[in-house]
Amino acid sequence: MHLCVWALQHCDSIFAAPGTSDGEFDEGVGEVEDAKAALAWMRAEYDDGPLWLGGFSFGAAIAVKVALESPPDGLITVAPAVHQFAHGFGGQPECRWLIVQGDQDELVDIADTIEWVNALRPGT
User: Fold this and answer.
1) Most buried in the list 64, 84, 94, 97, measured by CB within 10 Å?
2) Residue 32: strand, helix, or coil
3) For the packed helices 29-45 and 58-69, what is the interaxial angle rounded to 10 degrees?
4) Which class for 96: exposed (0-12), middle (13-18), buried (19 or more C-beta within 10 A)?
């Protein structure tokens, strides 16, 4: 739990809302690298318990990409923006995984999420 608290306390000052930063969008490459570095740091700092990775919308797509390369103990994706960012995943994470999607989400269409989920293999 201490990892989740640390992330919630610090990540809001690290990431800017869309259109409010000086950088250019790079299809999530920078965010994936940042998340992988944070995951490596957390594993080194807190190796005494399970490590779950999570994200919301674009962050959920980033979490999936990171989990493919460096599987956490678990993954939580809320309203994953799969219609925009699922291309190029090249598989699915091999970990426990909770996918949450609201049926009245204003940004992520539930039909897109259901179609994507139905193409996944059932968990192991």
Assistant:
1) 64
2) helix
3) 60
4) middle
Q: Which two tokens stand for residue 18?
A: 């869309």
Write the CB contacts of 86 (distance below 8 Å, at least 6 apart in sequence): 61, 64, 80, 116
Q: What is the mean pLDDT of residues 54-75?
A: 90
d(C-alpha 20, C-alpha 17), whole Å: 6
Cβ proximity of 56 and 75 under 8 Å: no
User: What are φ and ψ of residue 10, in 5° steps?
Assistant: -110, -30
Supply 16's token pair. 């800017």
Instruction: Summarize the confidence of residues 74-101 as an average pLDDT.
Output: 84
Distance CA(61)–CA(79), nearest Å, equals 9
Q: What is the pTM of this model?
A: 0.77
H-assigned helices in 1-124:
2-10, 29-45, 58-69, 82-85, 110-118
What secondary structure letter does DSSP report for 123? P
